[in-house]
């Protein structure tokens, strides 16, 4: 009995001291102990942090068009372009955050620093709005316009919102990846938790956005801009404090150094050896051993025969669906299809809204008698599209990026959003330039009742359809990579239509 008790005690101690298998370390740089670090304790802190940070960001971003028109005196098209450029800049900064994270600082330090910059930007915006911008007091609602602003006040405003862009942009691609780092994908149980984390991450993002779009939007729409901005600043501060409280429990991947030099080496080697015949197996290739690669904090990517693209499509069509359900590429494709339907629905609703003016209201300036609830289907469709696209993209870029480039993979996901915002800004300008002629006010005038926003929605549907065609071609060509040592049921994941 005594020996059995001793053995059980040793077994429990051994289990408690078991290190993770994916190479993560604790805050002191030692191998992360499974039961003392990571998993859902750290994951929940990061999810709450994401929800609060999203609330803070959208507390500014959602009503920024209204702020620019009512407080700063811009017209609708100018304000829409300003917000598109600002949002695009947010995601461009994500590349900077990802580079610093993967190369030098690590994800924890990068998240902490950029969140601090985010808080500084929000506090600066709150102060400048309260002291300078929202004057006279109570202006900025639908009835009371604000006064003019000096160049110094304008400069302080733009400095504040671009500090917010820098802070949120550098933080966003790292926090999702850092949350995924808390789950050891080499362990079957934690591997499933890691997949679930991305869905919960998207849920936290939307809960924060929901509060911003309801409670904060109400206060800001009523002209209480400073109060709304102070609420965002407080939420961001609380998010940072909670993030720092979890420091002893986080798991970390060691930064791998500048990825650009490694990428350049691959390009140069491929260019110099493009005529060399590739051996049948990877055993004859020059590469470090799996153990040495693992000790360096990364895992080898297994060799593929992707360019050897003739019977694979036929075999893929005959295979049964993956036991893991829809692949990330398939989910993104479905998201694009739903987005097309959403744009068509929005165009149809807007078309009929313009066809049914409010006849009983003499001072409504062309307002429609159509119920606002006709807009519900298109917003439901857009929400469904984002669920498929955003979660699929997060999982795809996290799973398919090498270990030393995980944050950079998430940043590429956000950069695609950035490019979309810049194209959106350009598209609005081009559409207004072409559609504004003679007596025609254009598709997107200040008073939408005199425009043709329905034509703009149909144009977006056509452009998204073209995007879908290109996406399907690229997705069918892509072959999923596999990592050495990963326990997975099915990691082929080819795109099937």
From TrEMBL:
<keyword id="KW-0472">Membrane</keyword>
<feature type="transmembrane region" description="Helical">
    <location>
        <begin position="412"/>
        <end position="436"/>
    </location>
</feature>
<feature type="transmembrane region" description="Helical">
    <location>
        <begin position="197"/>
        <end position="219"/>
    </location>
</feature>
<dbReference type="Pfam" id="PF00854">
    <property type="entry name" value="PTR2"/>
</dbReference>
<keyword id="KW-1133">Transmembrane helix</keyword>
<protein>
    <recommendedName>
        <fullName>Nitrate transporter 1.5</fullName>
    </recommendedName>
</protein>
<feature type="transmembrane region" description="Helical">
    <location>
        <begin position="153"/>
        <end position="171"/>
    </location>
</feature>
<feature type="transmembrane region" description="Helical">
    <location>
        <begin position="40"/>
        <end position="68"/>
    </location>
</feature>
<feature type="transmembrane region" description="Helical">
    <location>
        <begin position="332"/>
        <end position="352"/>
    </location>
</feature>
<feature type="transmembrane region" description="Helical">
    <location>
        <begin position="112"/>
        <end position="133"/>
    </location>
</feature>
<dbReference type="InterPro" id="IPR036259">
    <property type="entry name" value="MFS_trans_sf"/>
</dbReference>
<feature type="transmembrane region" description="Helical">
    <location>
        <begin position="372"/>
        <end position="391"/>
    </location>
</feature>
<keyword id="KW-0812">Transmembrane</keyword>
<comment type="similarity">
    <text>Belongs to the major facilitator superfamily. Phosphate:H(+) symporter (TC 2.A.1.9) family.</text>
</comment>
<feature type="transmembrane region" description="Helical">
    <location>
        <begin position="225"/>
        <end position="246"/>
    </location>
</feature>
<dbReference type="InterPro" id="IPR000109">
    <property type="entry name" value="POT_fam"/>
</dbReference>
<comment type="similarity">
    <text>Belongs to the major facilitator superfamily. Proton-dependent oligopeptide transporter (POT/PTR) (TC 2.A.17) family.</text>
</comment>
<feature type="transmembrane region" description="Helical">
    <location>
        <begin position="88"/>
        <end position="105"/>
    </location>
</feature>
<dbReference type="GO" id="GO:0016020">
    <property type="term" value="C:membrane"/>
</dbReference>
<feature type="transmembrane region" description="Helical">
    <location>
        <begin position="456"/>
        <end position="478"/>
    </location>
</feature>
<dbReference type="GO" id="GO:0022857">
    <property type="term" value="F:transmembrane transporter activity"/>
</dbReference>
